[in-house]
Amino acid sequence: MSSLSERLAAARREAAAQGRHAATPTADAALLADVVGATEPAADVPVPARTEPAATERRAPGPLSSRAAAAAGESRGGRRIAGTESDRLEDLKSSVHAELIKQLGPHLYDAEMDQDELDRTVRTVLSDVLGSQDRPLSAADRARVTQEITDDILGYGPIDPYLRDPEVSEVMVNGHDDVWLEKDGRLVKAEAHFADEAHLRRTIDKIVSRIGRRVDESSPMVDARLPDGSRVNAIVPPLAIDGSALTIRKFSTDPLTVQDLINFGSLTPQTADFLDACVRGRLNVIVSGGTGAGKTTTLNVLSSFIPTDERIVTIEDAAELQLKQDHVVRLESRPANIEGKGAVTIRDLVRNSLRMRPDRIVVGEVRDASALDMLQAMNTGHDGSICTLHSNGPRDTLSRMETMVLMAGMELPIRAIREQVASAVDLIVHQTRFKDGSRRITHITEVERMEGDIITLQDVFIFDNSAGFDENGRVLGRLRSTGLRPKFLEKLAYANVAVDPTIFRTERI
């Protein structure tokens, strides 16, 4: 058939044979649209291959087929427009970014330049560069490009908004296009992503270079910190197989107080009073727990109980503690340089701190042979020292301490190590992160003495989880007294610190 009229007539005959066509203007229009849509498709719209149905179910193409084709064309056209717009903005960002780097040059990395002055300079030059572009921009696009470039140059690129978000407690980057966040103790995927691996590496380099550290193929792992004290860990290829991994654990600019921990349910008012007395009474305390259990936060809170007239020396891998006392000396370990020399370990700093006339030694985390020096400090007149340690429980805390002392290579007998531990450590505060994301202190345990070859422990307060969970999966338990009075109350009394004996009554908690 060569003409449209002949094709239309054939379509009418087929419809009549199947009993579905009435000679009405509407039906004729539908058939005409179907015939035209089936034989003369638009150039942009692909026509799907028609499959032949069974003879009993065969139907002629309906009037919706041409509409669907048109809708598909509009949808694809919309995606093309959106993709083109996104590409245009990315190209604009790249060109503006390059021009900004060209104009500002070394000012961006001038350590002596005030941050507010640098911020003003970058925004002024950025406004001029955007104004000189010959590509028209809407107000929304201009604000977006300005914010993203400012974050990239002055901040940490696409993750900068999350670092400013008080609801985000941790940012995890698993490769340039995979970013996760921790909110309220739960993991959620972020919409942000880095442009490529080089973009992510530039951000990592910016973070670590500010504290004099480096990360490259010869030194592919690094611990660092942000100016606000947030903890940073980065690991790059070849150790990170799928691209560089960056983990940032944020610290609040306003540190949590003991009242905050009480409000969160981590502590009760009675246990807070008890820990206050223990710190003022110069007991040696170990804060233990798993990764992300809140040990550093608890250490900060315990440190806030230290009297203001004492000299405190803090020792950390990356300075995170936020002590409010006036007399604080902060020390930070240092990795080896590119030649493999110049490393200063936690153990070196603990030994050095003994010559600094400290009243208290606070170690951010004991994880190696520095445990031996920490025990020596606790046993040689530096009572009231506090440190953190990774473990699964109070008993495991002592086992890990023994293992780390053995790492010093002194070949001490186990009994001698245990006697040192039992003599040095007075209290273990163990913290746990529950499935609902909450962080709770679950054990406040006294380290008593040696009985044979075993160190005896006594729980003073223990987390009672008999209440179970609510309908949202939140923990309903809380710390309760075991009813036992610790034996170190005499030591507290010797330091002129009194503890209300009713704290240990089980019915009060």
Structure, explained:
- The structure is a single chain.
- This protein is α/β, with parallel strands linked by helices and 509 residues long.
- Among the domains are: 155-253, 2-Layer Sandwich (Beta-Lactamase), CATH 3.30.450; 258-310 and 370-508, P-loop containing nucleotide triphosphate hydrolases (Rossmann fold, 3-Layer(aba) Sandwich), CATH 3.40.50.
- Helices cover 39% and strands 18% of the residues.
- It is built from 15 helices and 15 strands.
- It has helices at 4-17, 25-39, 64-104, 115-131, 139-154, 160-164, 197-209, 258-264, 269-280, 295-303, 346-353, 370-379, 394-406, 414-424, 489-494; strands at residues 168-174, 179-183, 186-189, 221-225, 231-235, 245-249, 285-289, 312-316, 328-332, 360-363, 386-390, 427-433, 439-451, 454-464, 478-481.
- It has a nine-stranded mixed β-sheet with strand order 9-8-10-11-7-12-13-14-15, sandwiched between helices. Strands 3-2-1-6-5-4 form a six-stranded antiparallel β-sheet.
- Helix 11 (346-353) packs parallel to helix 12.
- The longest helix is centred in the first third of the chain and has 41 residues, at 64-104.
- The relative contact order is 0.06.
